[in-house]
Amino acid sequence: MDIFTLNNMQRTGLSDNYVSVVSKNDPPECGITIPGDSLPSYGGDQNWFHEIAVSAMYPEIERRDFGSVTRNGCTLIAATDFILYVLKYHAEITSEKIITDDIASMDLYTYAERVMLWKKKYFEVLFSGLDNIQMQNGFNSFFKDHGIKLKCKASLFRLFDRAAVEKYLKNNIPVILSLRSNNPSGNRSLDFFTQEELLSGAAVSNKKCSINHTVNITGIIRDKNRIWLEISSWGRKYYIDCAEFRAKCIQFNSMLYFSYK
Predict the structure, then answer these.
(1) Nearest alpha carbon to residue 182 among 233, 253, 134
(2) Which of 11, 79, 12 is CA-nearest to residue 43?
(3) Within a 10 A sphere around the Cβ of 154, how many other Cβ atoms?
(4) Which end of the chain is more exposed for a tag (fewer CB within 10 A), N or C?
(5) E-assigned strand segments in 101-195
(6) Chain centroid to CA 22: how far?
C-alpha cells in the first residue's frame, strides 16, 4: 500500500520510474555534482548548468550557452525530461532506438549532453524562456527528425483541463505545465509543498516559486478537501495546491497537448 493510500488519499500518476539523475558516475573532468545532497534527483534542474560549474565539460562551447540554461532553462528541462520519459516507456511511438539509457539512474554527464544537444537543435534558449508555441515547434521538429508518431499542439485559447491531465497520466505521459501570474501587481509566488508537508496538512510551505516557471506534472493527489498537482521542478518532487494554482495563474494556454499521428 502506498503512502497516499495509507493517508486516505488517492494518487493518479505516472506508473514508471521518473527521470532520476545521479552524480556518482560522472567522469572527474566534468567538475560538477548535483547540489544539496547525494540523493538521486526527480527530473532535471537548470541550476546544474551554472556557467562556471559546467564550462569544464564542454570547453568548446561558450559559457553564455550554459548561462542561458541556468537563467531561462526551465522549459528546456521540462522538454528534455518529457522526451526521455516518453521514449523510454512508449516504444510504440518510434522504430528508432533513440534512448537506451536507464533514465531512472542517469549520470549527470549524460543528462547534460542530451540537454545541450536538444537545446541546440530544437529548443534554443537565448534571452528568455521558450513560450508554448516555440515548445510546440521544437517538439514537432524533434518528432519529425526521429520518425516519432506524435504531434504537439499549443492550445492558445484552451483553459487548463484537469481531466486532460488525468488522461495523460493514466496513459503514462507527463504533462508540461506553464505557471504564469494572472496578477502581475499582486502575490506572484506559489507554495511548493514537499511530501512531508502535504501529508502533515501544512497550511503553507517553506518553498516558494515565482510564478514564471515551467514544470512537469507527474501525478494528481486527492484528499477529502484538496486536490494537488504532483510536479517535478529543480530536480525535486513538489506538490501544488490546485486551488492556489487556479487562483494565481493564467489558465489559458497553460499546458501542451500531445496526440498520435
Answers:
(1) 253
(2) 79
(3) 18
(4) N
(5) 106-107, 150-154, 175-180, 189-192
(6) 17
Angle between helices 63-72 and 74-89 (to 10 degrees): 90
Owner of C-alpha cell 505521459? 173
Query: Is residue 147 a contact partner of residue 96, using CB atoms and an 8 Å limit?
Result: yes
How many Å apart are CA 31 and CA 54, to the nearest integer? Answer: 7
> In this predicted model, what pLDDT tens digit does every residue of 11-34 receive, in sequence order?
999 999 999 988 654 444 444 555
Higher pLDDT, 35 or 145: 145
SS3 146: coil
pTM, rounded to two decimals: 0.91
Q: 174, 157 in Cβ contact below 8 A? A: no
SS (H, E, C) 182-250: CCCCCCCEEEEECHHHHHHCCCCCCEEEECEEEEEEEEEEECCCCEEEEEEECCEEEEEEHHHHHHHEC
